[in-house]
Amino acid sequence: MATTPNPPVKSNLIGLSVIDYRGGKSTLCAGCGHNAISERIIDAFYEMGIEPEHVAKLSGIGCSSKSPAYFLGRSHSFNSVHGRMPSIATGAAVANHKMLYIGVSGDGDTASIGMGQFAHLMRRNLPLIYIIEDNGVYGLTKGQFSATADVGSKLKTGIVNELPAIDTCALAIELGATFVARSFSGDKKQLLALLKAAIAHNGTVLLDVISPCVTFNDHEGSTKSYKFMKDHEEPLQDINFVPAFEEIDVEYEPGSGIEVTLHDGSKMRLSKLAEDYDPTHRIAALTRLAAARENNEVLTGLFYISPERPSFTDLLNLVDRPLGTLPQDVTRPPKSTLDEIMSEYR
Ligand SMILES: Cc1ncc(C[n+]2csc(CCOP(=O)(O)OP(=O)(O)O)c2C)c(N)n1
Ligand code: SF4
Ligand SMILES: [Mg+2]
Predict the structure, then answer these.
(1) Mean pLDDT for the chain overall
(2) What is the pLDDT, as a whole number, of residue 16?
(3) What separation in Å is there between the alpha carbon of 27 and the centre of ligand 2?
(4) Atom 11 (ligand 1): residue with closest C-alpha?
(5) For residues 82 and 171, what is the distance between their CA atoms, to the nearest angstrom?
(6) Which residue has the CA at smallest separation from atom 8 of ligand 1?
(7) How far apart are alpha carbons 34 and 66 in whole angstroms?
(8) What predicted TM-score, i.e. pTM, was given to this entire model?
């Protein structure tokens, strides 16, 4: 009997299939927004044809910080300490500036215990894709409000948050990050386009993704629930990403939006939705975010980009070979050099 041949397995630019970009089976709650983000990360790295072994994943502590275990299983990974992912990422990026770094954190991990580290990371423009899986609560420790919870948002117990939310995007722009965006775990198209652009960027990407916690913060009265996001998400632009390896077959009409060229030659085409918005203008970005807070809008999209500013590792003028692979006879000064230095203090 004739058998039907299996459909050919699709592969990307470097001959890998999407399976090569998957990780372990998720142990997070079914329906958690963090799982959808892992799926988009898998798609983005697959579609960009990135070698998984060329990627290092970093995280802190929280349900969100567990998620690097669920994507890019062939990549390097370090699950660090609560709020300390930025310093681990900085050390790793300086030791090997040839890798691609992706850090996953939570709103609790970032905006409370990790705030000091977050601030210095943004200021340095370290080449790192920093994702905040933002659910407005400490999911892992059973749903207390985090510092990104909105004023007026209600816990299941009826407790109302009366403290102002920290806007991590506004803060990142103020501090010096060069690619700042917000998305929603349920907005597949926008999140995928932003992730692919983030891969093409050289510098700190801060991507705050609203990611509902179905167990502790998805009820009526929560401003980080699926329903609230579906009703209130206000995308700034329609984002199309064209990777450097793809030919641009459609001419871009000047005046119909903005085109941004990224570090590797890829392009982001931002078509205006409701308003004209220039994401290369820092003050305009801060003003627009302040207006969104004032009007209780959940604005998503690319808020700010500065593709030209050198990254932290560029500024260090590192030798081409990764420092972590240099042999001891190169990195360790000989005894005669140390003796010479010591003699200066006599
Ligand atoms: C030093 C330290 N302090 C406190 C904790 C307890 N703790 C574990 S996870 C967490 C918050 C996680 O919240 P978030 O980063 O928002 O992640 P989510 O679980 O919501 O994804 C806290 C406070 C800890 N693990 N270590
Ligand atoms: S507790 Fe919340 S954040 Fe944690 S896995 Fe479950 S749904 Fe996700
Ligand atoms: Mg959280």
Answers:
(1) 95
(2) 98
(3) 10
(4) 138
(5) 20
(6) 62
(7) 9
(8) 0.95
